[in-house]
Design goal:
By secondary structure, the protein is α+β, with helices and mostly antiparallel strands. It is built from twelve helices and eight strands. Strands 4-3-2-1-5 form a five-stranded antiparallel sheet. The protein has a three-stranded antiparallel sheet with strand order 6-8-7, covered by helices on one side. A hairpin with a 4-residue loop joins strand 3 and strand 4. The N and C termini lie far apart (137 Å).
Length: 376
């Protein structure tokens, strides 16, 4: 009878105590969340209820497993697995707490900051700090699990004895990984690129969607995702349109006929720009920047608050000018000239007077050269 009651008491007591502690902590966090709505910390910490209950349950079983007398012949194996589960549950709980702290720090800063660029910078830094801390906790938990095996203790001692050689070998083998890791830290704290920045990388225009310790994801305008190593951004040039002031100046180029009414096009450009909601009111202009034998190049410039606004404004101006020219001044659009060229002027004689020797020269044949018009 005792062999049945002891396990029931240990298992039942561990389950009841774990559920009770989890319920009490969750209720306390709920009250704190209602009392302090300005911070989401207490609400986010409630996500750690399950790992907390797992830690308490496994910890109680580990402490009182000898009292159950269920696995006397396999006590070492039972203790080993309980220790492994306890380490995993503790790491799970630490990661949940870490996530709650990082998300709270970001939300509180975003609520009081007025500079969007600084908010993106802090978000990038906190994201990388969270990923680094997650990697550290995972590695420590995995190492602690491995050290529970007796064979691993001997392996660890031998590894420590040859730490110098192994360090050199690991450094050479993980050179690329370590380079990306330090590049990620440089990006996070050097304010080179942040989550949410608009960048142009290898000719692709997009927004930085994710930054990790080893790679960076750029979401392009057509919803493609380009994954690149973070070391790329520390070794090669790239365009960051939202670093500092996001205001931009956009250009629209048109190739028109030489007869195009530039003054009227300038007035029409001003009307289109001023009527657009994407113009920030700073500047606009239209000038002739180049000419070719068949066309002239006209450049319209305008300003906007963000890269997205300047793209939309450029499209509006380009479409508006082409539509207006096609409707009001179709002759100003580029075309291929098929008319016969005007004859060259005759120098040394008055206009309208025919050269009397022209016909004879045309019918004459140079000396020594046979006349190709005559047979034979």
């Amino acid at each position: 009878m005792e062999n049945v009651l002891r396990p029931l008491i240990v298992f039942g007591g561990a389950i009841i105590l774990a559920l009770a502690v989890g319920w009490a902590v969750d209720r306390a966090l709920r009250r704190m969340d209602a009392r302090h709505p300005e911070t989401p910390l207490w609400g986010l910490l409630r996500s750690g209820r399950v790992p907390l209950q797992a830690v308490i349950f496994v910890g109680l079983l580990n402490a009182f497993s000898d009292e159950t007398h269920l696995a006397r012949n396999h006590q070492k194996a039972v203790d080993l697995w309980l220790n492994l589960i306890l380490i995993g549950a503790a790491a799970w709980l630490m990661l949940r707490v870490l996530t709650a702290v990082v998300e709270t720090a970001y939300s509180r800063y975003a609520g009081i900051a007025h500079d969007a660029a600084r908010v993106r910078r802090v978000r990038t830094q906190l994201t990388l700090i969270k990923r680094l801390a997650t990697a550290v906790v995972t590695v420590i938990a995995a190492a602690a699990m491995l050290l529970q095996f007796p064979a691993m203790e001997k392996l660890g001692a031998s590894m420590l004895a040859s730490a110098g050689v192994l360090g050199i070998v690991a450094g050479i083998a993980a050179q690329s990984t370590l380079g990306n890791l330090f590049a990620g830290l440089q990006i996070a704290f050097g304010d080179m690129v942040r989550i949410g920045d608009t960048v142009i990388v290898d000719g692709e225009w997009g927004t930085v969607e994710e930054i990790t310790t080893s790679y960076l994801v750029v979401l392009t305008w057509d919803e493609r995702r380009i994954t690149m190593p973070v070391s790329y951004f520390t070794s090669k040039p790239f365009e960051n349109w939202t670093r500092g002031n996001p205001q931009m100046t956009g250009t629209v180029y048109l190739h028109l006929d030489h007869s195009a009414p530039i003054a009227e096009i300038r007035r029409r450009t001003e009307e289109i720009v001023r009527a657009s909601d994407f113009w920030d009111g700073r500047n606009w202009g239209l000038v002739v920047t180049d000419s070719t034998p068949t066309t002239v190049e006209v450049r319209a410039t305008m300003t906007a608050r963000t890269p997205d606004d300047i793209w939309t404004l450029r499209c509006e101006v380009r479409e508006g000018l082409i539509t207006w020219l096609h409707r009001e001044h179709p002759y100003a659009l580029p075309r291929v000239t098929t008319a016969q060229a005007a004859p060259a002027p005759a120098f040394g004689r008055e206009p309208g007077v025919e050269d009397p020797g022209a016909k004879s020269r045309a019918n004459s044949v140079r000396p020594g050269i046979p006349d190709a018009r005559k047979p034979g």
